[in-house]
Design brief:
This protein is an alpha+beta fold. The protein folds into two domains: about 250 residues, no CATH class; about 150 residues, no CATH class. Helix content is about 30%, strand content about 20%. The strands form four sheets. Strands 7, 8, 9, 10 and 13 form a five-stranded antiparallel β-sheet that branches. The structure holds protoporphyrin IX containing FE (HEM). The site of protoporphyrin IX containing FE has 27 residues, from strand 8, helix 11, strand 10 and helix 14.
């Protein structure tokens, strides 16, 4: 019986064939690896050393890569009070990587436009309004592959990194760049991004066990987090006629955050809306993100509620006076029920980067009474760059998931209706000039609106479209 991709997978009750599929699938796709410290190692393959590189990648797969099966068992044991799992390792190839290996016949075939041409291709750049002029030089060149290493201990990441780099070099590869990622946690131990907000709370869940846990602990009556395996998985052509080899398209984007600019604009918005005192003024940022810093959804309340942010909500009966139509989480997931709309949702696996250490931890910053207070007491401690998010996501359909989300939702001032404005966090391109409209009173359309442009505090610094092949591919090289 073939693996059914049109439903989630119950991995603890997997059939023999499903178990084989999990053993052939790389980790991090069906569920995040969850490690706090990472490095992304970008490399170029020497096409005159195909044999050496194939041998190196084979060895990588046989001894280092983490299968989905291994990851799930490790995570389960850890949650039951056991030891943390082994260091996590995943490998990715770009279209040029397949070609340099002489393996184009085994490359995924379903993304003629974005994967085949790469992120630096003129049409790919134009689609999502990327500008290579802003890119770091090491990303602005042909990248053939990437290895992701993750562990909770930086020391362990470094050990594994050394082994992997040695192996890649033995295959004749050139290391182009190494990008470190590091989780940032708030006082509730929830992962946050550099603007200070809990991130990663809302994910499409692909495993029945995760869906059941969410249903009992948080509820799933207003937003259904259940997604099918085909939100991420596609058949890996390298498996030939086998029924168990799957892979996933993978997006990597280094997004730099101007924290100072963003937090100051939050204060300007708070003043524009007449919010008084540091507590009330937190609402301004919640309107931008769609959640308060602690993750509380702004469509549910006008104040932060503390730990365990809910995810069982939608925007029925919220015309935008509670969560603005342009609020980041509403733009990138309008939470409708139509299958066509849900088809754009993708598993995100990002982690913050801190290339330049911050003076003050984002969760330790004081609130501000007003703009002068902010300028005097908070602003000097905030970075204008050097920090951000390594946005990573798995897609089965790049065009309809990541590219659609960035292009037709986030960058588009006309979504969901004319004049709404771009996504204030990730919007890029011409439409970021359109000022967004903000309801003056929370949950009260009678209070009137103000306009204020909120844009361009995130800058894309480089990335690539990759594929995460099955372990079958690597082992048979
Ligand atoms: C520096 C860049 C970014 C920042 C600071 C950021 C921040 C956040 C935050 C704070 C959340 C709320 C936590 C959650 O609901 O999981 C969130 C959710 C989300 N973000 Fe982003 N994000 C960034 C980039 C992106 C990009 C590039 C995309 C896709 C193109 C994206 C798509 C999403 C999606 C789909 C959600 C979940 C929405 C939901 O299901 O309600 N984000 N983001």
């Amino acid at each position: 019986m073939a693996i059914v991709l049109t439903k989630p997978l119950a991995w603890k009750n997997a059939s023999a064939e499903e178990q084989q599929m999990l053993q052939c699938l790389q980790g991090n796709i069906l569920k995040g690896h969850g490690r706090d410290e990472t490095v992304n190692i970008f490399f170029k393959i020497d096409p005159t050393k195909k044999l050496e590189m194939k041998r190196a990648l084979r060895e990588l797969a046989n001894y280092h890569l983490t299968s989905a099966d291994r990851q799930l068992r490790d995570t389960d044991r850890f949650h039951q009070g056991g030891k943390p799992g082994l260091t996590f390792v995943a490998a990715f190839l770009s279209a040029s990587g397949y070609s340099a290996l002489g393996a184009t016949a085994q490359a995924p075939k379903t993304e003629k436009q974005f994967f085949d041409k790469g992120m630096r291709n003129a049409a790919s750049l134009a689609a999502v309004s990327d500008k290579t002029a802003d890119w770091e030089a090491h990303f602005n060149q042909q990248i053939d592959g990437m290895i992701l290493v993750g562990d909770d201990e930086r020391r362990q990441v470094q050990f594994k990194r050394d082994e992997v780099v040695k192996l890649l070099k033995s295959g004749g590869a050139t290391i182009l760049h190494e990008q470190i990622g590091s989780a940032v946690k708030n006082h509730h131990n929830d992962g946050i991004e550099h603007f200070g907000y809990v991130d990663g709370r809302s994910q499409p869940l692909l495993l029945v066990e995760d869906i059941e846990r969410e249903a009992t602990t948080a509820g799933t009556s207003r937003w259904d987090p259940e997604f099918s395996l085909n939100a991420a998985l596609v058949k890996d052509p390298a498996g030939g006629a086998d029924t168990v080899s799957f892979g996933s398209y993978f997006i990597f984007r280094k997004l730099e955050q101007n924290v100072q600019g963003f937090k100051r604009q939050e204060q300007i918005l708070a003043t524009t809306l007449g919010l008084i005192g540091s507590e009330q003024r937190e609402l301004a940022g919640a309107l931008v993100v769609g959640r308060f810093e602690d993750g509380s959804p702004v469509t549910l309340s006008d104040e932060a509620k503390g730990a365990n942010p809910p995810n069982d909500f939608n925007y029925t009966n919220d015309p935008g006076s509670r969560c603005p139509l342009h609020g980041h989480i509403r733009k990138v997931n309008p939470r409708g029920t139509a299958a066509t709309e849900r088809a754009h949702i993708m598993p995100r696996r990002g982690i913050p980067f801190t290339d330049v250490a911050r003076d003050v931890h984002p969760s330790d910053l004081p609130g501000s009474e007003d703009l002068p207070d902010f300028d005097a007491n908070v602003k000097p401690d905030l970075p204008m760059g050097g920090v951000g998010l390594l946005f990573m996501a798995y897609n089965s359909n790049l065009t309809n998931q990541f590219v659609f989300t960035q292009q037709s939702w986030a960058n588009n001032a006309g979504f969901p209706s004319a004049g709404v404005g771009a996504d204030p966090i990730i919007g890029q391109g011409a439409d970021t000039a359109v000022a967004q409209t903000w309801s003056v009173k929370w949950d009260d359309t009678g209070g009137g609106t103000k306009t204020l442009n909120f844009a361009n505090f995130v800058t894309m610094r480089g990335g690539e479209y990759f594929f995460a092949p099955s372990l079958t591919f690597f082992k048979n090289l």
